[in-house]
Write a structure and sequence with these properties.
Length: about 325
């Protein structure tokens, strides 16, 4: 019972896929022929992926999509097959998100989105929150039309792990050379065939292994220290930020794994080019295994501005609402 045959009120569309995400590959281009009028809504979602078996719906295990669908079904009184919830990125089990984007359909319009926004968040578990709900154009598609996605991978590089970071950063006890990691990361930037950095998956379909990496930054995070005065010093936290047109299954975690071995000075930065040229995942396996999922977060999914314009006669975007006091409850003296 899925939403593979989506019908929308728009002209015939030729859809080309721009990438999976931190957990899945791409699918071939498809044609959608619209027949039934509907209203489309865009969600921006944040979640702690620790307790979930990834984004995508599964019948036997808890997933983020499953929880959001249940909340939307109660808030809209619609069936799952009618909502047709689609996420931009099918994140893996244990992967987090600050800016996952999704869409759903309703056969009716809303005058205001604040009420359904509050209702959905009230029905969700505390480790999932819808940050925004906005009206979307009929031609918008969360999964097929991103121009880029940004992922962060956090590494806690110290002998002793900070327990407050344990769910969101990978504890790595080898001392890392951030300069060497930056040099290696720069080799990923540009348009390349990333076959050597993709794990095989039965969800991949016929994924295109050629992707464009816009940037790959290695950032040494500062922390505040209070002695005689408050100051910032370099801390043990490394944040790897990568922006690309799309990513193959586990591509980001595999790239990070190789950078860690470069950072510990076990292999030179130029190894990236050598492995990439082979287009063979077995070559990467000689040097590094994939990093664990909990250090990875999907930070944002970016689209062309034209696709983000609101349709005519649509309600304003809801960013949530504050509680207000309408009458003063304190007595006057």
């Amino acid at each position: 019972m899925g939403c593979s045959n989506i019908t929308l009120s728009l002209p015939l569309l030729h859809i080309s896929n721009h990438g999976g995400g931190g957990g899945a590959g791409e699918e071939p281009n498809i044609l959608i022929k619209p027949t039934i009028p509907s209203y489309k809504w865009r969600l921006v979602i944040s979640y702690d992926g620790t307790k979930f078996s990834g984004w995508q719906y599964q019948e036997t295990v808890p997933t983020v999509q499953c929880n959001i669908e249940k909340a939307l079904m109660r808030a809209t009184k619609l069936e799952r097959k009618d909502l047709c919830l689609v996420g931009a990125s099918r994140t893996d089990a244990g992967v987090h998100a600050w800016g996952q984007v999704a869409q759903f359909l309703t056969p009716f319009n809303y005058e205001s989105l604040d009420s359904i926004h509050a209702a959905v968040n009230g029905l969700l578990p505390s480790d999932i929150r819808v940050r925004e709900i906005s009206p979307a154009l009929p031609e918008f598609h969360a999964r097929f039309f991103p121009k880029s996605k940004i992922y962060h991978y956090k590494i806690y590089n110290d002998a002793v792990m900070d327990p407050l970071q344990r769910h969101f950063a990978y504890h790595y006890t080898y001392k890392l050379n951030a300069v060497a990691m930056r040099e290696a990361a720069n080799h990923f930037v540009g348009t390349h065939d990333f076959s050597a950095f993709a794990n095989a998956s039965n969800r991949d379909g016929v994924a295109n292994p050629v992707k464009h990496i816009f940037r790959f930054d290695v950032i040494e995070m500062a922390v505040g220290v209070f002695e005689l005065t408050y100051s910032f010093v370099q801390g043990p936290l490394l944040q790897l930020e990568v922006e690309g047109s799309g990513f193959l299954y586990r591509q980001v975690r595999n790239m990070v794994a190789l950078l860690l071995h470069v950072g510990r000075e076990a292999i030179p930065p130029e190894i990236v080019l050598k492995i990439m040229a082979t287009r063979d995942r077995r070559e990467l396996a000689k040097y590094a295994l994939s990093t664990p999922p909990h250090g990875l977060s999907l930070m944002s999914v970016l689209y062309n501005e034209e696709l983000l314009k609101p349709p005519p006669d649509s309600p304003p975007t809801s960013f949530g609402r504050y509680h207000t006091i309408t009458h003063c409850k304190l007595p006057f003296y």
